Amino acid sequence: MARIKPKRHGVVTDMTAMCDVTFLLLTFFIMTTQFKKPDVEQIKPPSSISEKLLPDASLMTINATPDGKFYFQPVENATERLQLLKKMGEKYNVTFDDKQKASFQKVQSVGVPMNQLRSYLDLPEDEQKNYKSPTGIPMDSTNKQLTDWVQQSLSVNPEYKLAIKGDVTTKYPKVKALFEGLRDIKFLNFWLITSQEGKPNE
Description:
Shape: elongated
Number of strands: 6
Strand order of the largest sheet: 3-2-4-5
Order of helices and strands: HEEEHHHHHEHEE
Distance between the termini: 68 Å
Structural class: alpha/beta
Strand content: 5-15%
Number of helices: 7
C-alpha cells in the first residue's frame, strides 16, 4: 500500500517585527553618532602601522600646523569647559561675560593667546570656525600657555586623556618644546595621531 505523503504548507514569515527593530537601530545610530569636526587648518599627520584607536570620551587634542602653530581642543563636556575657562581666566587675570562663556562651550578649538581669547569668543560662530590664528597658542621657554591649558584641564578632571596631531612637515624644535612642556607638568602619557599605512610585506 502506498504511503500517504503529508500535504506541504508554505512557510510564511512575518517581517513586521524585524522592520521595527531595523528602524529602531537606525534611529539610535543616527541620534548618537558624533561626526569628526574638521581641523581649522589642514594637517597631514605622519603615517604608521599602528591600529590602536583613540578613546571616545574625555579626550583633549593638540593640533600642530605645518608652520608650528598650536591649537587646543578641549573635551566636549560643556559644564567642564566652563570650569576650565574659569581656571584659565583666574590664572591669566582675564574675565569673561556670559555670552563669551556660552561661546566657549561650543567652540571647536582655541588657537589664540589668552589676551586675545575674549575678542575671539566675540566672533560669530561661522567666523570662529574659519579663523586661522596668525600665532596660535604660545608654547616656548618663556610662555607656556599651551601646557597651561592641559594642566588646568587635568585640574578639572584628572581622567582626561590627550592626543597630539602634528603635521608631517612640522619643525622638530616646535614639537620638542611641546614635549618638554608636558614633561615639566609631569604628563607623559598621550596619543600621537597618525594616518594608517599598509603593514610591512603586504
